[in-house]
Amino acid sequence: MAHIELVLLQRVEKLGQMGDVVKVRPGYARNFLLPQKKALRATKDNLARFESQRLELEAQNLKRREEAERVAERVAGLRVVVIRQAGDSGSLYGSVSARDIADACGEGGLSVHRSQVVLEHPIKTLGLKPVKVALHPEVSIMVTVNVARSPEEAEKQLRGEAVGAAAEEPETVEEAGEAAEPEA
Fold first, then answer.
1. What angle do CA 165, 170, 171 make, to 5 degrees?
2. What is the mean pLDDT of residues 123-134?
3. What H or E segment, with its residue span, contains residue 98?
4. Residue 184, pLDDT score
5. CATH superfamily, domain at 74-170
6. At the topology level of CATH, where does 4-56 sit?
7. pLDDT more than 70, % of the chain
8. Which residues contact residue 25 at a Cβ distance below 8 angstroms, ignoring those fewer than 6 apart?
9. Which among 69, 73, 78, 145 is least buried, having the fewest CB atoms inside 10 angstroms?
């Protein structure tokens, strides 16, 4: 299948930096890069227009990156709590998606859009999970998502205590053996 040449207007992860001319599949260009204003078709007119606006675009990019770095310093180490129903084994009845994490970050003082939350798979178990939030194409932070059944359980998880089925299991093999033997 044919590829389309584009000039990038900003850094795109795993593709290139601002100003790079790249070849991508038509669907990726048509459905993502062009509508999101991350790239232009690499025609002579567009390349000339990009070169004339390059300094202005780089200045805007630098300003947004500095702003994102200030926000990253302000909210470094952010921890958010997401309350969900779960079974005894610790698996959730639903899942925690990027939208849920973005909403929890908003409550925690960091206003992000769900598209900024980089989540490879939805979270489906209880516990503390590190999640990457991209504030800018070049600036990202790690947010710790605490998935729990209740606020009390979230506090226990934060202290490092076992919760759920893991907390009810005997701590050592000897205790398990003593619990299984009947009293004589």
1. 105
2. 92
3. helix 98-107
4. 43
5. Ribosomal protein L9, C-terminal domain (3.10.430.100)
6. Ribosomal Protein L9; domain 1 (3.40.5)
7. 87
8. 1, 3, 4
9. 73
The residue type of 140 is S
Per-residue pLDDT tens for 47-79?
A: 998 888 888 988 988 999 999 999 889 888 889
**Domain regions of the chain by residue span:** 4-56, 74-170
105, 181 Cβ separation under 8 angstroms: no
Take residue 149 and report the two structure tokens written for it: 């059944």
The answer to whether 39 and 8 are in contact (CB under 8 A) is yes
Cβ atoms of 148 and 163 within 8 Å: the answer is yes
Helical (H) or strand (E) element with 70: helix 44-74
Could you tell me the two tokens for 138?
């070049």
d(CA 41, CA 129): 39
**Cα–Cα distance for residue pair 72/66, rounded to 1 Å:** 10
CB atoms within 10 A of CB 91: 12
The neighbour count for residue 173, using CB atoms within 10 Å, is 8
Residues of the chain with pLDDT > 90: what percent? 45
- Of 120, 116, 90, nearest to 103 (Cα)? 116
Q: Which residues contact 111 (CB under 8 A, 6 or more apart)?
A: 105
Q: Where would I find the H helices in 130-184?
A: 151-159, 165-168, 173-180
